[in-house]
């Protein structure tokens, strides 16, 4: 059996690479509205390919980006496996890109290009795996859900589900968008953290003012946002400070922690893999629990005032921070967002959330 | 006498406006290195004009931008008045500019264009005043010092002073770069706050990392900088929190506060004049004291992570804040900067100051 899979892999590798190249080179960046046409192009390419392999495929419209569905149906009474992936990607404006991020590049056995590992490569891999299973008459139905808004928090996924749930009955779901902790040691993720995003904007005037003339009386939106953020979150302890935030967090059992450690997780490898110069201190169990079972509060972007070279000693009139909280089992996103908004409004009534 | 001055003003208005236009349209932005040639062009124009009026003028080189000096010498035994202005300007990247900032524009009796009020207009006004005094044989020598690094904290002014102090003996100095508090009520500033700048940079990795994968273990440089800034400064109270910061601040006397109020200062007018939507609360005496006699701590710019449209849920690897403290009489800038650096290093050893 193994050697048969190996032969299959070799026989389809060229096709896999051609397809991955084609998909990676479509910049399906969901965060940037100017890529709307690329999103649709990416969805169309996926539908077309699914159909060429004999699947029933559809581009399902939502108020936002479409969702691609595909089905290999082999028999009504057979179990149904649903595989989830996403075809949208993050913006690729990091200065560390050595090559054009949307030009696919093969470096030995590594595939390089935005989306090749998150999540177009895994989507294609799962599809090739399904194709193999179907070709070998495995008694199973396989269906795909490929989202195009995953990277922006899936704002219309619920809409899609409500619309299509009737056609998507399933016996099991595989989310094929996670990681293996250690090379050569397969791991199955059985829980994922969700995302509750917020944007904080504070405007205290209509233009920058002179810090010599107005400093001391004018309110500085940057220092106020900084203070507010540090009241929400203790960056030193890695602890959210908003009362009630942790109330509903599910407790980890001893066996869960043991499983975390059995995955092959080490702080050292984690630090190296993510190129973190420094990271939070803690033992393996503490860090693994923080990563996989504790909620977070992160500021993804902050901007205010003059950020060019040199100094411009003005007091800005506006500052903005993009924030997300990763939530864990038993935390209710609506409840947490409401709790956070109330906390922020109480501390600084002028901040728009 | 008055009508003579009025006649003089009318007779030179056209020349004044032509000259102001010429100077304003040279973008002498000291914060932006690409304007180095404009800085020199601005200095040359000033030297040339001083000479055309009969002054001894010179462009004095420093390790940074030059300083322009000019002298009207009428007699060795006569008192010397030195007038200080600066010819550099702030960057003009504010979105509120309705016209090109370096295209001079006359709107009735208002002159519009970057630098027309800070500080090229006042420099020219003082020069025309001096010219009137000299032409009317006022028994005084008048000399000018026009700096081209004022807006970036005068890093080479000390160098200039050490080099040229011997030639610049003076009986009094007028800093012609301040404001009148109320229209029609002349005011003399008898003290100015100085500027102690800092830049804080925190890098916790070499690239942005995924907040779902690393959040909870990776250090977030934005939240850490926010926390650090709020530990340095209470934005709500407008109070610096670093121990020792206020130790040497000179106390205000009752008569000083009375003079502040006699200047015509009102919180309402101040708020309107600077287009502040909201400002710090306090009565006239409190706000005036904060503005003119209390030190400040301001963040002029902060940037970190993704600041484009939408959300990018990465944890950034770098954040940066540009900060200045305005210092008041008896505060020693070296001492304060050292105090601040020590405080910051103690709170977050990874921050580069």
Written account of the structure:
The first copy, chain A, starts with a helix and ends in a 6-residue tail after the last helix. Chain A is 34% helix and 20% strand. Chain A has 2 domains: 2-175, 3-Layer(aba) Sandwich (Aminopeptidase); 194-347, Alpha-Beta Plaits (2-Layer Sandwich). The longest helix of chain A has 23 residues, at 2-24. In chain A, a hairpin with a 6-residue loop joins strand 1 (56-60) and strand 2 (67-72). In chain A, the strands form 5 sheets. The first copy, chain A, has a 5-stranded mixed sheet, with helices on one face. In chain A, strands 8-14-12 form a 3-stranded antiparallel sheet, with helices on one face. In chain A, strands 4-5 form a two-stranded antiparallel ribbon. Chain A contains 10 helices and 14 strands. Chain A is α+β, with helices and mostly antiparallel strands and 353 residues long. Chain A has helices spanning 2-24, 36-52, 120-135, 157-164, 211-214, 221-232, 254-262, 267-273, 284-292, 333-347, and strands at 56-60, 67-72, 80-86, 105-107, 110-112, 141-147, 172-175, 194-203, 209-210, 233-234, 239-240, 298-305, 314-315, 318-327. The first copy, chain A, is globular and about 75 Å long.
């Amino acid at each position: 059996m193994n050697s048969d899979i190996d032969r299959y892999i070799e026989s389809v590798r060229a096709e896999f690479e051609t397809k991955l190249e084609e998909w990676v080179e479509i910049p399906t960046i969901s965060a940037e509205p100017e890529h709307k046409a690329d999103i649709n192009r990416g969805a169309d390419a996926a539908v077309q390919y699914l159909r060429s392999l004999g699947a029933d495929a559809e581009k399902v419209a939502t108020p936002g980006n479409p969702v691609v569905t595909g089905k290999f149906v082999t028999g009504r009474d057979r179990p149904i496996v649903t595989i989830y992936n996403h075809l949208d990607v993050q913006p690729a404006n990091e200065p560390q890109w050595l090559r054009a991020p949307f030009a696919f590049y093969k470096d030995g056995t590594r595939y390089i290009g935005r989306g090749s590992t998150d999540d177009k490569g895994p989507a294609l891999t799962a599809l090739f795996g399904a194709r193999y299973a179907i070709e070998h008459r495995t008694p199973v139905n396989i269906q795909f859900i490929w989202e195009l808004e995953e990277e922006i928090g899936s704002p219309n996924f619920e809409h899609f589900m409500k619309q299509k749930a009737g056609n998507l009955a399933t016996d099991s779901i595989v989310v094929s968008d996670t990681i293996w902790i250690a090379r050569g040691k397969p791991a199955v993720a059985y829980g994922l953290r969700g995302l509750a995003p917020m944007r904080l904007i504070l405007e205290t005037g209509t233009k920058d003012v002179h810090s010599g003339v107005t400093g001391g009386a004018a309110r500085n939106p940057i220092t106020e946002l900084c203070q507010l953020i540090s009241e929400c979150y203790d960056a030193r302890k890695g602890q959210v400070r908003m009362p009630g935030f942790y109330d509903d967090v599910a407790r980890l059992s001893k066996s869960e922690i043991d499983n975390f450690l059995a995955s092959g997780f080490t702080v050292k490898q984690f630090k190296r893999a993510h190129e973190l110069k420094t990271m939070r201190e803690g033992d393996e169990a503490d860090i693994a629990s923080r990563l996989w079972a504790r909620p977070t509060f992160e500021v993804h972007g902050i901007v205010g005032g003059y950020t060019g070279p040199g100094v411009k000693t003005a007091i800005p009139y506006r500052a903005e921070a993009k924030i997300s909280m990763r939530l864990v089992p038993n935390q209710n996103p609506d409840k947490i967002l409401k709790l956070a908004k109330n906390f922020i409004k109480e501390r600084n009534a002028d901040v728009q959330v």
